[in-house]
Amino acid sequence: MPATPAAPATPVSPARMGGQGFSGVYAQLRGEVADTIRHGFPAASRAMSVPAWTPPAAPAPAAPAAVGTPAGEDERRSFLAQIAPWAERAARRLGVSSDLIAAHAALESGWGRQPVRTGDGGSTHNLFGIKAGSSWDGASADAMTTEHLGGAALRMVQRFRAYSDYGSAFDDYAQLLQLPRYAGARDAGGDVRSFARGLVDGGYATDPGYAHKLEQVARQVQRLSIP
Description:
The chain has seven helices and two strands; from the N terminus they run ααααββααα. It has helices spanning about 20-40, 45, 75-95, 100-110, 165-175, 190-200, 210-225; strands at about 140-150, 150-160. The radius of gyration is 40 Å and the shape is globular. The chain has a two-stranded antiparallel sheet. By secondary structure, the chain is mostly helical.
């Protein structure tokens, strides 16, 4: 329903001004203003003052990159520099370029980002994804992996070898490739295709695209190694 109109304002009479009339009220107001200028506002008024301006908070920093994102060029160079001494030692034993050994480690470990880990999250230093078969009597760790069987990719838990350091891991890798079945991978020099094919023929991996993937990573390693 419509609002009731407000009653008209009642004119202020000189009596409601304390008997001072308009001139008296005006004089009083002037005096109060002058007194305020000299002495400031009363304490009660100062207590109600507007609080000081506070600058807005800085924006939150951007979230770090997810673990699943590809390794950047600097991160890849750092990984290659870290493993270089052991890659060169293994390469001399196998008769292949150290770039190919480094590429194999990079492929199996995601450039050092996704190595096989122990149950408590520690490192196994197993950059080559070497499994712990029945003949292995050293430390080991169970981890999820993908195997290609009968044309299908299957996720399963496998047991992998664990090492005390990277040096031990590279030495064991070089020893593994001394087996007769990996003869095609040895003495390949810088021929990544021969090296990759020798690994696949020896049964190193079940992925049908393994040789091609290793070739791609090897090209990246060689490009990063160029000064």
